[in-house]
TrEMBL record:
It comes from Alkalicoccus luteus. One of its GO terms (molecular function) is DNA binding. InterPro entries: Homeodomain-like_sf, HTH-type_Tx_Regulator, HTH_TetR, TetR_C_Firmicutes. This is TetR/AcrR family transcriptional regulator. Residues 33-52 bind DNA. Coiled coil: none annotated. Residues 10-70 form the HTH tetR-type domain. It comes from the Bacteria. PROSITE patterns: HTH_TETR_2. Keywords: DNA-binding, Repressor.
Length: 200
């Protein structure tokens, strides 16, 4: 009986969180109401208040859930290693895009709207701090903080472009593309198109 009740509680909480994320695609955090969330989740207001004291408490838990899953997914390729070469990873070991796809309603809201102000900076900071703390390159001139800052912004840019394209590629394909970017030799030649003054 307790196990069934626990599953019911989990389903209700999940439904409320999902409803909140879906509503953010059309309105700001301030514009979302408890009634909106309850109706979207197909539960009554009383059920909402059984799980969350306020709308802000729900919002905070959604943010914490997404960021926690982000860090777990980011660390997945190297969680059981003492060292590794990023360019040698297998595409299947990269779980970051699986994470984004799991939370696609939320990422649509942060990329396509202004519903969740400040989350891009928060996400990049979490990635930057995780990378700087976890990863050390064996290069005398290597500055981990700068590399972590560069990589976190690059990952967000890649993610944002994927979201803007309405997830037209699979998470596995995005992982492959990330590896190609990591594996591209620094000495690769890039052709420069003839420059004109058009549009200047």
């Amino acid at each position: 009986m307790t196990e069934r009740r626990d599953r019911r509680i989990q389903r209700s909480r999940h439904a409320l969180k999902l409803a909140f994320q879906q509503l953010l695609q059309d309105t700001s955090v301030e514009g979302v109401t408890v009634s909106n969330v309850a109706a979207k989740a197909d539960v009554c207001r009383g059920t909402f208040y059984k799980h969350f004291d306020t709308k802000e408490a729900l919002y905070q838990e959604v943010i914490e859930d997404v960021l926690e899953d982000l860090v777990i997914s980011y660390r997945f390729p190297y969680q059981d290693r003492t060292e590794f070469v990023p360019a040698d990873l297998a595409p299947g070991s990269i779980q970051l895009f699986e994470h984004v796809y799991r939370h696609q309603d939320f990422y649509r809201a942060i990329v396509l709207t202004d519903s969740v102000p400040g989350f891009q900076d928060k996400m990049c900071r979490v990635l930057r701090e995780t990378a700087a703390k976890d990863l050390v390159a064996d290069l005398p001139s290597f500055q981990p903080e700068l590399a972590a800052a560069y990589f976190s912004q690059a990952l967000f840019g890649l993610t944002a472009e994927w979201v803007r394209g309405n997830f037209m590629y699979t998470p596995a394909y995005m992982a492959e593309q990330l590896l190609l970017l990591l594996q591209a030799p620094a000495a690769v030649k890039v052709r420069v198109s003839p420059m004109t003054n058009e549009g200047v």
